[in-house]
Amino acid sequence: MWFAERIPILRAALVSGLPAPAAAALLTLAGRPEPAGPLTGVLAGLLLWGSPAAAALATLWGGAWAVLATELAGIETADAMGSWLEWPGWPGWAVGAVLAYALAARPMPGGVPRMPGGIWHVLGRVRHLPGGGRHVPDGVRRSPLPVAAVTVAAGAGAALVAGQLAAAQAAGLTLWTDYHPYDGPGWYRDVTSALWYPAASVVLASVLAGRLRGGREAWAAVPVAAWLGAALAGGPLQYAQALGATGDPPGVALLASLAGGGIGAAAGALALRHPGAGAGLVCFVVLRTLQALDRAPGEWPEPVEAMADPVLLLVPFVVVAVVAARAARRAARMGPGLVAGLAGPLLVWAVYAAVGARAYDHSTQSDPYLQALLTAFLAPAVALAAARLAVLTGRSGSSGDATSHGTSTRRSP
């Protein structure tokens, strides 16, 4: 029944709308709003036990609700909640999403999994025998590590992040200076970019390596390999690019590179576990790249400039609807469609939330931050409607095909 499938969705909505703002408010009153993301992730993992993807997405969406609630209350703690430990580039909400996924995917007591494909399908379910030996239960086989997929993931992660960083530096998108000549002082926009390039590279490398033999089954090893490749290539390069600025930028750039790769690894693991989510993540990587080009220094032709902002504002919701409908139709269920539709917007939101709006610092940081927040708020409604419509039309189409072919249960004489 489709109503039974809505129960995890309803629970995820409650987790997002209630515990996340409540935890943020309590921590703010205590004067330490930084751990809001990890604490929300722990709560989501416990309350959404058995639905790890829903728990992770609920944590990130709960971060958007917490930011809105604190802003409406006149409390400016959104930047502190995102940058846990008060370090720009330390993704508190993304860390919370990873904790939520790990807690929600753990097996139930008694060795019975709540969710098929739970976390031990990768680690291997192992029981200790009285004699001290171990055995793998029936139906669970240990697969050898796919060396080709892991190698491709590491190499692709390194090549993609190095290429993006070099291109951004050449195009003037990354300046790492104390003063941006065309838009005032600040470098938080560059911190966000330092998070984004490794995150996008790891996502793309994971999706690419997942198409190789054994890549999708190694949903933990492949993203981690891509993360290591991106860290080894992108970390030193970002550190070197930030050496021209005074103060902390070089160290923050290195930290942001590692944190961004971690966000990408979490998203890449989700893409390998849920194939429909991979398409949404890749689409939003492309969209975020187009948005960066729109903010590049220089003048665009007037017709292009007039159309760019409305198009870039509406296209994300069109992509959410298409991706959610595609995944829901293929699975004939709403849940996969909702996960696929939300993965991309929440990836972008996780990156921007790690740094914050910084409205006092740079408009090219605050404007995309607000757009990411708006997209994260509205994407669930768009994805849910598109997934539901796709399931209904898919069922009606199947019924129509059966009728047109003259399907009958009457026996022939």
Instruction: Provide mean pLDDT, rounded.
Output: 78
For the termini, the CA-CA separation is 36 Å
Order of secondary-structure elements = HHHHHHHEEHEEHHHHHHH
* Structural category: mainly alpha
Question: How many DSSP-defined strands?
Answer: 4
Low-confidence regions? 110-140, 407-413
Main β sheet profile: 2 strands, antiparallel
Transmembrane segments: 12-30, 42-67, 147-175, 195-212, 219-239, 251-270, 277-294, 306-325, 337-357, 369-391
Keywords: Membrane, Transmembrane, Transmembrane helix
Quick tags:
globular, 3 domains, two-stranded antiparallel sheet, disordered C terminus, 413 residues
Provide structural commentary.
The chain crosses the membrane at residues 12-30, 42-67, 147-175, 195-212, 219-239, 251-270, 277-294, 306-325, 337-357, 369-391. Keywords: Membrane, Transmembrane, Transmembrane helix. There is one protein chain. The protein is mainly α and 413 residues long. The chain folds into three domains: 1-73 and 90-105; 145-273, no CATH class; 274-297 and 306-397, no CATH class. The chain has helices at residues 2-17, 19-29, 36-47, 52-72, 78-82, 92-104, 120-123, 147-171, 188-210, 221-241, 249-273, 275-294, 302-331, 334-353, 363-404; strands at residues 127-128, 134-135, 179-180, 184-185. The strands form two sheets. Strands 1-2 form a two-stranded antiparallel sheet. A hairpin with a 3-residue loop joins strand 3 and strand 4. Helix 2 packs antiparallel against helix 3 (36-47), helix 10 (221-241) runs antiparallel to helix 11 and helix 12 (275-294) runs antiparallel to helix 13 (302-331). The two termini are 36 Å apart. The model is unreliable at 110-140 and 407-413 (pLDDT under 50).
